[in-house]
Amino acid sequence: MKKHIFHIFILLVAFSSCEKDDICIEATTPMLVIRFYDINNPKTIKSVNSLTVWALNKDSIYENKAIDSITIPLNLNENSTVYKFQSATFIDEISFNYNRNDIFVSRSCGYKTIFENLSIQTSNNWIKDNLINNSTIENETSAHINIYH
Amino acid sequence: MKQAHILIFIISLFLSIGGFSQQKTDTIKLKENYGLRVGIDLSKPTISFIDRDKKGLELVGDIRFLRNYYAAVELGYEDVISTEDYLNFTSKGSFIKIGVNYNAYQNWAGMTNEIFFGGRYGFSFLSQTLNNYSPNVNGTYFEGELNDVNTEYKDLTAHWLEFVLGMKVETFKNVYLGTQISIKKMISTKEPENFKNLYIPGFNRVFLNDMGIGFNYTISYLIPIIKKNK
What we know:
Chain A has one helix and nine strands. Chain A is mostly beta strands. A five-stranded antiparallel β-sheet of chain A has the order 3-2-5-6-7, with no helix packed on it. The longest helix of chain A has 15 residues, at 2-16. By secondary structure, chain B is mainly beta. Chain B has a single domain, classed as Porin (Beta Barrel). In chain B, 12% of the residues lie in helices and 60% in strands. Chain B has helices spanning 2-20, 43-50; strands at 31-41, 54-64, 69-83, 87-103, 114-133, 147-172, 175-189, 199-200, 204-205, 211-229. An eight-stranded antiparallel β-barrel of chain B has the order 1-2-3-4-5-6-7-10. In chain B, strands 8-9 form a two-stranded antiparallel sheet. The longest helix of chain B has 19 residues, at 2-20. Chain B is elongated. The chains are: A mainly beta, B mainly beta. The interface between A and B is large, with 37 and 35 residues.
């Protein structure tokens, strides 16, 4: 038994210190998920034929995309983000207002920001209506906002 | 459940060794020192000299209470700044570890060197200060700005168990150089709100599975109180 104590100890050291926690694998700050629906038939998903999306004074995230849902990041340093949504030649401006809450995730991931009390204001050039499904953005599993066009 | 297994493991080690330690007594009478041994960990001041983010002090002591058994204690404080990818925090606090060492080394007559293993119960009273962080976000469209928050979380505690293995060598009369490494397993912690005890004085870095490792390198002096026949 005495002979083996050292070996057992080495094994313990080997197994105890191997667990990796310096690579971030958890979900961090979520993005806003938007789905596009048909204004005449609000249950039906309707893609935008040529969608271009950009935040004010920034490059576009989506450019001339035929798409029925998008994920866009919110500004995590301010309580509002203004986006421009262009469909064909029509441009609408949407401002997203929210409160921010920083949640601890882990050693390697640090903190993530979740957004609460989301409200939106939009112009109505091609966007006819909108619906907030979930005013708290803490994951990306389902659409937070429906846009009808 | 896991903790119970570890405890049973440590106890069973002690029991199995106990069975081997019965030896025939020698007819020559030799006096051996039984006393209080006090010392200091040399690694902590060395590390704080190299790395200014790590400050600490650790005092060690033990008393031989049976031929091969020593009651041991380590106590000290630490003030350590840790930098991670998205945050920076300071852990400050004091700790105490108490337990027993079993000397498994068969000394030649008159020598008192040790190769020992043992167990400890550790306790730390600490505070964590989140110095700054930047929220983690995928992509670079919007990036999280650095927030200098300086939030202090006080009155935190941690309890843990350690398995230690080490050696002590008498280099001059009654002066010992020693080293030990330890594997730690957290029992319970009082965690800060919306943060985590990622580093605990005395426990060091807390790994994901609540394990920790540590070592020290000590110089200690034996205050000979009692001389006993071997």
